[in-house]
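Hey team,

Filing this mostly as a record. A colleague (T.K.) asked me to run one chain through the structure pipeline before their review meeting, and I want the input and output archived in the tracker in case anyone asks later how it was produced. No errors, nothing strange. Just documentation.

Input sequence:
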Amino acid sequence: MKFTAQQIAGILEGDIVGNPDVEVSKLSKIEEGTKGSLTFLANPKYQSYIYSTKASITIVNKTFVPENHLETTLIKVEDAYKSFSKLLEYYNMVKLNKQGIENPSFISDSATYGSQIYVGAFTYIGENVKIGNNVKIFPNCYIGDNVVIGNDTVVFAGVKIYSETSIGNNCVINSGVIIGADGFGFVPNEKGEYNKVPQTGNVIIEDFVDIGAATTIDRATLGSTIIRRGVKLDNQIQIAHNVEIGKNTVIAAQTGIAGSTKIGENCQIGGQVGFAGHITIGNNVKIQAQSGIGRSIKDNETLQGSPAFSYGDWNKSYVYFKNLPKIVKNITDLEKKVDGNN
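Output structure:
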């Protein structure tokens, strides 16, 4: 897929300095640019590379004035970083714009789907499934009975969506995600063995949710596990049964959330955070990576540590943590002096 400088400038509403007919077919970092690639310059630290880059086209701010000769064609815009991001979005949209139903695949006679959909080979779509317009389902996916998928959602290869799951509009579900598997529900019996508690609920995912690769979201025991509008989940996150995550919350990789925990809106949660079950996290909470959360948290708190406490207090305490051997030695020496004086 090739684009000319003229076409790109039209998309970005930019001005061309150089050859308007030069073509590009790939993207690159400015320091690694090669012929036929497109790059950008936004950070002044990388400005020296624009004079040596082999990239055919470089997006720059309108304020950029070259000090030496350039081989690359420039496209001048108001904000190079935002324009490059816009171009990436456009590139992805074009790249993912597949349509049609590939064979072999199976779609139940009772399933319904909208216009301009794509279903990749070896995909299974069960009974009474409802799929909206412009949905892309890549190969090797499983869509269970009674699943609903809204408009403009992308389901990448190898995703498993269990029965009764509801997914909104404009969602992105990356490869290896499993939505709606049974929650971890077992009770001990008189023999010391564990009997399974049936998991009869479902998962609800609202609009504009992104779910990273290999993340798992368990169905509720009763009711619903709910991921609210605008939530962004990184790779390899475990969300247990009956969890609820508030709108526009972002969670980094390898975080684990135990059953029935409620997380508020606009929270920012670092990687490898562990949440105990049946607690409530307020709105606008920030939690640093590798923290352990074993209690409910009020709105607007920032925490770190395991068990976690106030981020400011944690930083102050860390000064003492790292000096504990020295502090203990000083105390021991003082005790010896006191005992010697007695």
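Quick notes for T.K.: Residues 324-341 form the longest helix (18 residues). The chain has a mean pLDDT of 93.
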